[in-house]
Write a structure and sequence with these properties.
3% of the residues lie in helices and 57% in strands. The radius of gyration is 24 Å and the shape is globular. The chain folds into four domains: 149 residues; 130 residues, Chondroitinase Ac, Chain A, domain 3 (Sandwich); 94 residues, Sandwich (Immunoglobulin-like); 80 residues, Immunoglobulin-like, CATH 2.60.40. The relative contact order is 0.07. It contains one helix and 42 strands.
Length: 474
């Protein structure tokens, strides 16, 4: 495309014909540092891919008040700008790669498997009419007023999330993510729901359905909530619907069995009453879910070594952990094995240094495979490690006996919101709150008066991952 702005002001039929013919020759319309305007009620149809790239002197810009309809990939550079007040349709009959942008309305209409190549945000609607949108290692974020439409055969596979204010006594569907929450005795406030599909939670040979939710409210006392979990038949993971029950884990420790108050196999829903919010899924009433990891973290030790730390609250028949590494977050290989502690109700810490050497890929992914004596196994969540980030943030914490406080210093190179939790040796949550830090060094003071002597875990969860410090009160 020439170095001039390109305006779509043609009538609907004419614009479709001209641009179909254009892309039929090249199979790619490349916006090389220019601006494309699509007017209201107009359609830019591209029978092929659309490359939106930075030419080195000008940033590419799309202003879409109409419809952008692609049968091929949507490609962007780091500096791509998109202002979309209307629709982007992915209508290819085969696979399409979709660049992560802030979309207004997205339609998956052509069938096949569509894959995200970066995080994406939906401001209004994600309408999966024909096909599967696979987020992979990325996340689809729904704006607080956005809606997702799916069905048994056409759906979003992977991770989606929404953050919104959750008041008392109101049933909220979180934009159709597949969970309804109605708090009955405490206002949760601003609440984030993260939905994961295509993956199950498991342990000791038992598995949940292939769908679970991580719910993080601002206020997480006894909410007295009613929750309704929605699921698709293909997510049942060989579990009989008449055996389904709700399982929940607040932050750490064992899964709690919440049972059910109503099962509806026709609507594919299960309803339960719960006291607090946290990680929620459905599994068989015959096979309760076991304990999960307290923490798992992957960080750079130096330019050629990764340091992996994880912690368990208790273990059942734990033979060993396989440490697995991946360059793309999809294909993993075993790189090491660390012995487990069999059956124990005590907290155990584990650590492994991975000397990966000099690599060209700037990102690595790690996960743990916990293997029982009988060969049954379960996977941890995946941790993303970006090269060159080992010295960006510094976190130091210690116990001050004179003030009976845990004191900490933390450095961030940009304003960051952090979730802070403190846990005792029995896995009991003592403190949980979100704190916003400014650029530079900030201090934290946590009161420990009334707490017994012993070791406490202080964890910080930010956008880069989880940091856990063990602190001795004496």
């Amino acid at each position: 495309m020439s170095k001039t702005n390109f305006y779509i002001r043609l009538g609907l039929i004419l614009s479709v014909c001209i641009l179909t013919a254009l892309s039929a020759r090249a199979q790619l319309l490349n916006n090389n540092g220019d601006t494309i305007y699509i007017s209201n009620n107009e359609t830019l149809y591209i029978s092929g891919g659309f490359g939106n790239t930075d030419n080195g002197t000008k940033y590419p810009y799309i202003h879409n008040d109409g419809i952008l309809n692609l049968t091929g990939d949507l490609v962007k550079s780091t500096n791509t700008f998109y202002n979309g007040n209307d629709s982007v349709l992915f209508s290819g009959a085969s696979a399409q790669n979709i660049a992560g942008l802030n979309f207004h309305y997205v339609g998956i209409t052509g069938g096949g498997n569509k894959s995200l190549t970066d995080n994406a945000k939906i401001l209004s609607h994600l309408n999966v009419v024909n096909g599967v949108l696979n987020s992979g290692v990325y996340t689809v974020t729904l704006d607080s007023q956005a809606i997702i439409n799916e069905d048994e055969n056409n759906y979003l596979l992977g991770t989606a999330q929404m953050t919104k204010y959750l008041p008392l006594g109101i049933n909220d569907t979180f934009g159709g993510l597949g969970i309804e929450i109605n708090p009955g005795s405490l206002t949760p406030g601003m609440t984030t729901v993260v939905r994961t599909t295509g993956a199950h939670l498991s342990g000791n040979g038992y598995q949940s359905i292939q769908r679970y939710f991580d719910i993080t409210p601002t206020n997480n006392g006894v909410t007295g909530s009613t929750v309704v979990l929605h699921y698709f038949d293909h997510e049942l993971n060989s579990i009989t619907e008449s055996d389904l029950a709700v399982y929940r884990k607040r932050v750490v420790g064992k899964w709690e069995y919440d049972g059910y108050t109503l099962r509806d196999a026709t609507l594919n829903t299960i309803t339960a009453s719960i006291d607090t919010l946290g990680k929620i899924t459905a599994a068989s009433i015959l096979h309760p879910l076991p304990v999960e990891l307290l923490a798992f973290d992957a960080r750079l030790f130096n330019s050629e070594t990764a340091l992996l730390n994880w912690e368990t609250a208790s273990e059942i028949n734990n033979d060993h952990f396989d440490i697995e590494r991946s360059a793309d977050g999809k294909q993993f290989e075993k790189i090491a094995e660390v012995a487990g502690n069999g059956t124990t109700n005590s907290i155990h810490d584990y650590q492994y240094k991975d000397l990966f050497g000099i690599i060209s890929n700037p990102i690595l992914y790690y996960r743990l495979k916990q293997v029982d004596y009988n060969g049954n196994y379960e996977y941890s969540e995946i941790k993303k490690l970006v090269m060159g980030t080992e010295n960006q943030n510094t976190f130091k914490a210690w116990y001050n006996a004179s003030s009976e406080k845990i004191e900490a210093l933390i450095y961030y190179e940009k304003p960051t919101t952090v979730s802070i939790r403190m846990i005792d040796m029995q896995g009991k949550l003592l403190l949980e709150k979100n704190i916003s830090f400014i650029t530079g060094v900030s201090s934290i003071n946590l009161e420990t008066h009334g707490l017994a002597q012993g070791i406490y875990s202080l964890s910080l969860q930010d956008e880069n991952g989880l940091i856990v410090k063990r602190i001795l009160k004496y």
